[in-house]
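From: lab user (bench 3)
To: helpdesk
Subject: output format question, protein + iron/sulfur cluster

Hello, I'm new to running complex predictions and I'm not sure whether the block I got back is the full result or only part of it. Here's what I submitted:
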Amino acid sequence: MRVKVAEEWLNICGGCEVSILDIGEPLLDILPKLEFVHMPVLMDHKYFGQTGEKTEMEIPKADIGIISGGMRNEKEKHVAEEMRKKTKTLIALGSCACFGGIPALANMYTLDSLYDKVYRGSKTTDSADTPTENLPALLDRVYAIDELVEVDVYIPGCPTNPDLIAQALIALLEDKPFEMPERSVCDDCPLKREKKAAGGEIKRSLASAEFNQDEPWENTRCLMEQGFLCLGPVTRSGCARPVEGGPKVPRCIIGYMPCRGCFGPVHKGANPMVDMMGAMSSIGLDVKQVPDRRALLNRYIGGQKRLRPLPQRPGR
Ligand code: SF4
Ligand code: SF4
Ligand code: SF4
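Helpdesk reply: Thanks, we reran it on our side. This is the complete output you should expect:
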């Protein structure tokens, strides 16, 4: 008998659904064992009947539930709760589902100032209005799935790594647990570390790192030691993929770009900001030199505790 899967996308961009398709050939092996009973990205499914005649939300029962995206409004919360009721094992797919992701940057600001900025402040809308008709009410902030609904399996990443989705599905098909190891991106990184900074100022990530792509990976100096704020030491491993038959390399490092932390903390309860300051100090980088330090602090300790109005644009 095939294993039933229900998939939902909530407050997202769709990139994590592309990761499912990007599983590639292993997907062909898994697909015959799966039956997708609900997946709005692929199949039309009306939640309240074809003509909206039903009063109860209809999501079919499934063995595995997958949710990408966090929750921004009441409808998304309702869908997540329904998915929890209807599925035996619930997977939070991608960093939006696991942590709130990029949309949760809005949690730094009050709901009212967001309305002012993105709706009432526009030249084409009514500056005194707050749209409510035929729209689900916004929640007070963006929520990760497990803040309101119990989650069984976490697959972070923005977008996540297709290999991890395949590994999780195969494990669940074999009735085995799936959990990612508590390792850091640095543990997968082949760049050369000398345990001390190369000197000079801390650089913005848009500056170009020193590298020669014709040379082996281990001939390029660690980007943090080059002075870039690479979040590899405090970010969970999982994004690395093999490059041209060689070793696995973290996704951003393949492009000689510093890690921006998209796989989230190495383990639950970690304090990445404090750990990052420790990692920087340990190689002699001065934390006080970090450009945009305030934005960085907001990212890590922001959320609902630091809600404040958005700054006004001139002329508004
Ligand atoms: S985790 Fe990233 S790729 Fe996935 S839905 Fe969120 S923003 Fe898109
Ligand atoms: S800090 Fe960045 S560049 Fe350096 S080893 Fe870690 S992941 Fe690689
Ligand atoms: S290197 Fe960091 S930011 Fe880039 S994909 Fe991996 S975890 Fe995400």
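A quick orientation on your result: Residues 185-186, 189, 191, 193, 222-224, 230, 232-233, 250, 253, 259 surround iron/sulfur cluster (ligand 2) (CB under 6 Å). Let us know if anything else is unclear.
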